[in-house]
Amino acid sequence: MRTCLNANLEVVVVIRLVKQAVLFPILLSLSAACAMTSEPFQRDADIIRLRHLKYYSEVLDEYHSKVGNYPFEGQETVPLYVHVAHEQQEKHTKPGPPYAHVVVPFSRFVQEVESKLGREIDELYDPQYAPDYKPNFYIYMVNQDTYFFAMHLHQSYGFAKQVGKHYYKAELSNNPTPQNRALDPELLFESQEYLEAVGQPVSKASFFKAREEKYLHFTKQSR
Hints:
- The chain is an alpha+beta fold.
- 30% of the residues lie in helices and 21% in strands.
- It has one domain (41-221).
């Protein structure tokens, strides 16, 4: 197990989420406890994160099949971001990118999707409450007719891009290109490496299940 990070440490994490490859610096205040950033915790958390990735991809596909576009597509002339973050994670999403953009609350994303699907969806959040080497929230972004959905992993996977130490990004898009280096959802979820990764047992399944259920419909509880 590694030692705790200094609570006042700050890093700039660079994330490429826009087709034009605009750099998105996120300033993170790192204050995670050792227990929450231990290797056993992160091994389990990565399995959960990757399962969440498929869930959100399926939600987006279902929405697109019914509506003909993706949530909030074409509503803004600048990139639109949704941070999939609950009350303990929201503060870590700031300050955001330095260029023109719009941030839409995750509650609006949930309302929009549920209104079009005609059913309730689960709200699945990163199981880590505070960041360490990487952001501890998921990101949905739509720019023009292209969406990206990104999450941040602790371990190395062949399909994930390394951003820094213990920081790998798995990012889906409906328009993956060599320039944006995003992943094709269908190819990813059929790949042997992904199937093996999500098929691994979670050593503390009850702990992660309780954490997931606590926020399963959080945006409705906070209205």
